[in-house]
Design goal:
About 45% of the residues lie in helices and about 15% in strands. With about 280 residues, the protein is an alpha/beta fold. The structure holds magnesium ion.
Length: about 280
């Protein structure tokens, strides 16, 4: 794979990604794939063939779970990832099934929004989520995979503290600068410098800060039109030694999504030529 290979976030039947026809139209060489529903995951051989046949490299399979909602920040805290206690065991089991699916389609990385991990390591939730991350990492290690945590809900130093507590070499960061703005969890470029050596995949997404960061959502924007500072973001990725794919995320749907991502591909191609 070429350095900074451009990609898009895709989905087959679950998640907000572009479908395969859309990816073909965009003409990019890589994708991240939102894990399909359990029933569809049984057709791994067929899915592998569909992406390979389109000349696409799938770089990360992202786990998502029934019952997750990103409606507002308190709802994310209650419903997302491995933090909610009621769904913890079944989601842990499903994560392993998703890792198996990723292996079956030839992918060496599983990604996830793990949820709101408390910053205080004396909080019992902290210990439980550390144990969950260790269990997922160990399972993924057996499949020669890394486990990538999507950034957003925590500061750079808090994420680094969590990494040290988990203590597994195959734990990695999927860095999403826009999420940090959307959640109000800190200046993304600064955080990227803090966790840079752990970054194995990234999202290229943009956003404006909310009037009351951390209490209400910021606003997601087309790439280059928000407050991430796209050029500085790319220069910082270069500084921390990141050479992996640049995966575009645009969390709207339909025509608008394809048009915005098409413009983002052109913008990234131009900036890559200038910066890398
Ligand atoms: Mg993201």
């Amino acid at each position: 794979m070429e350095p900074w290979a451009i990609g898009v976030f895709t989905s087959v039947d679950a998640g907000l990604g572009v479908d395969l026809d859309g990816v073909r139209q965009l003409g990019v060489p890589t994708v991240q794939l939102h894990a399909p529903h359990a029933e569809t995951r049984r057709q791994a051989a067929d899915i592998k063939q569909r992406f390979a046949g389109a000349g696409l490299t799938v770089t990360v399979v992202f786990a998502g779970f029934p019952g997750e909602s990103y409606a507002d920040i308190p709802t994310v805290k209650k419903t997302v990832g491995l933090v909610p206690e009621a769904t913890y065991a079944e989601r842990l089991a499903e994560t392993k099934e998703i890792a198996d699916f990723a292996r079956a389609i030839g992918v060496d990385a599983v990604g996830m929004h793990i949820g709101f991990v408390p910053e205080d390591d004396a909080d019992p939730i902290f210990g439980r989520v550390v144990a969950a991350a260790q269990e997922v990492c160990d399972y993924c290690a057996g499949l020669d995979q890394h486990f990538h945590l999507e950034t957003g809900q925590e500061t750079g130093p808090a994420l680094l503290h969590f990494f040290r507590a988990v203590g597994r070499d195959n734990l990695a960061v999927n860095f999403d600068p826009a999420n940090m703005i959307l959640y109000g969890s800190g200046e993304p470029i600064e955080a990227l410098r803090v966790v840079g050596k752990h970054v194995r995949s990234v999202h290229c997404k943009d956003a404006d800060w909310a009037a009351r960061p951390g209490q209400e959502w910021g606003v997601e924007k087309p790439l280059g039109e928000g407050q991430v500072g796209l050029e500085t973001y790319l220069r910082t990725l270069k500084d921390v030694g990141y050479r992996g794919p640049l995966t575009i995320e645009r969390e709207v749907s339909g025509e608008r999504q394809l048009a915005d991502i098409g413009a983002a591909v052109k913008l990234l191609e131009r900036l890559r030529a200038e910066i890398l």
